[in-house]
């Protein structure tokens, strides 16, 4: 029987929701591994709505759960209904929606607050010693909720211009966590906390390399489950 995995989304679209390629990559790798996946998102208003063609915010109002349903093909539940006891692991794709909707990192950095249902979900899986997978910017959720944990968002320096958000690593360190430098096709496993992270689009890399890196994250999560 396949592992039961909860996937938590933050909307639909890189600039104001979940990064679509990351969510899809996670789902493909989970499907290939025979995992049983259920998708969740918080039933809250997005912090903002971005016109992805122009890259600028609009005056629209959108709901994170409703927008995430686009990625889930309509098969999605309110995050408040997620019960850790019913799953073997949880995975969070990245995208600016994580930093805007699941927490306030986009505005407050290391002083951010984390959505109550996101925090309680992370705490529940951690307390049950069940693995947590995070990619792109979503490792900051673990850094905020679990001081002292180990995560990666890629590199701590903008190596060859490929890591423009390398300062995130410093902010993670300031939270009392350990940042581990990894390449885009690698993931890091914090065995003590059962937290698996990979940098995904925090690195400017070809899509197939990001896809492969997310694959290593999914593989390590399932090994721990």
UniProtKB/TrEMBL annotation:
Cross-referenced InterPro entries: Class_I_gatase-like (IPR029062)
Superkingdom, taxonomy of origin: Eukaryota
Gene name of the record: Gatd3a_1
PANTHER family: ES1 PROTEIN HOMOLOG, MITOCHONDRIAL, GLUTAMINE AMIDOTRANSFERASE LIKE CLASS 1 DOMAIN CONTAINING 3A-LIKE1-RELATED
Name of this protein: GAL3A protein
SUPFAM superfamilies xrefs: Class I glutamine amidotransferase-like
């Amino acid at each position: 029987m396949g592992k039961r995995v909860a996937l938590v989304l933050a909307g639909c679209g890189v600039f104001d929701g979940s990064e679509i390629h990351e969510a899809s990559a996670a789902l493909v790798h989970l499907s290939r591994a025979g995992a049983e996946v259920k998708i969740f998102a918080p039933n809250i208003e997005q912090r903002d709505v971005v016109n992805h063609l122009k890259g600028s915010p609009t005056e629209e109002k959108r709901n994170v759960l409703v927008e995430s349903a686009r990625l889930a093909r309509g098969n999605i539940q309110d995050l408040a209904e997620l019960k850790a006891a019913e799953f073997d692991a949880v995975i969070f794709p990245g995208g600016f929606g994580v930093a805007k909707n699941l927490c306030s990192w986009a505005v407050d950095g290391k002083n951010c607050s984390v959505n109550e249902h996101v925090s309680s979900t992370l705490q529940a899986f951690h307390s049950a010693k069940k693995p947590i997978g995070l990619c792109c910017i979503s490792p900051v959720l673990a850094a905020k909720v679990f001081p002292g944990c180990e995560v990666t968002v890629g590199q701590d320096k903008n190596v060859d211009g490929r890591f423009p958000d390398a300062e995130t690593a410093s902010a993670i360190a300031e939270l009392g966590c350990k940042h581990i430098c990894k390449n885009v096709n690698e993931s890091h496993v914090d065995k003590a906390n059962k937290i698996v992270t990979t940098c995904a689009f925090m690195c400017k890399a070809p899509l197939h390399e990001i896809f492969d890196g997310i694959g290593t994250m999914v593989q390590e999560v399932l090994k721990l489950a």
